[in-house]
Structure of DUF465 domain-containing protein:
Amino acid sequence: MENSHISALSAKHAGLEARIKAETSRPMPDAILVASLKKQKLRLKEEMSARN
């Protein structure tokens, strides 16, 4: 069960990374959205690290 939770967190992390990349590649990226996505991504990374 723990492994599936980490896999889900990893998938969410990858999804956030894709959203960040898509937003930053736009001509005028939304800086507030990018900052929010990065914070979410960091929280997920910290949670994954805490579970290992």
Q: What stands out?
A: Helices lie at 2-24, 31-51. The chain has a mean pLDDT of 94. The longest helix spans residues 2-24. The chain has one domain: 1-50.
